Amino acid sequence: MQTTTNPQPGLLDSLMTATPTNEFLERLDRTLDWRTLEKALQAMYPAATGRPPCAPLVLFKMSLLQHCYGLSDPQCEEQVGDRLSWRRFVGLGLQDAVPDETTLVRFRQRLREHGLHEKLLGLVNRQLQARGLILKTCTLVDATLLQAARRAPAKGDPAGGDGDAGYTVKHGQPHYGNKAHVAVDETHTLIRQVTLTAANVHDSKEFENVVNGDEEMVMADKAYWSQSRSEWCGKHGVANGILRKPGRGQKLRPATVRVNRLFSSVRCKIEKVFGWWNRSAGYRRVRYVGQAANRLELEFKSICWNLKRLANLRAV
Fold this sequence. Notes:
This protein is an alpha/beta fold.
């Protein structure tokens, strides 16, 4: 399946450019250099002979739309075929066939096989950092629970559920699924790092995996506070903005309580990411079964948030 790479557009393509545009997608298409991503994606298809596959950048952009709007594979195929602005964004002309859902499934599988399910966010972030949009003054850290794609297994049924999910309790309510651990730049709330674990993994266990250690300060809630983490911050020259919690049988001093309130007013910015995931991207639960597949989904959700922020920042 070929995409529109013909330097001489046909009549149908001319009609496409005359239709109303999606301002957000048009702005996004202009503000990101897709060639770097295309080069990394093209490396997954080393064969120089035979019938050319669908352009991987088309599939990547379709995946972005899918995860940005919380669509299934068939829904994404249908919407790209129906909306001219989406077709134009992914790089398909009116004469081009839309990749089907099976092609999207194979594309995700190839991303996992080549280890890109944990590297795509980094490829995008290199451009954002080069433009000075990801600042290293302060990093905010937090985690959010995601419901599993399958129901929790029945007692005594090891084959049920998802082997990479886990149980936890939040606000007195049981939860079965996964947990996304996120670190964002405080200035522009751009996601810097993400990891995915079972829900029963404590938030603080992933702190060192999402914090780069190159920022001036790191902020997180009380769940991350410990003496060892304070020593880690000191070793890396990072100011410790983790909310303090009292020792057993002790109370925090009034000055520490005031500092906690100040830090909390800044730290809460990360909740914007989780709110958008829940409300707009439909990311309350994972879509797949298995660590690698859901890790890739988290990568795409994170990229969608960063690209949304990039488009909005460029519009200001």
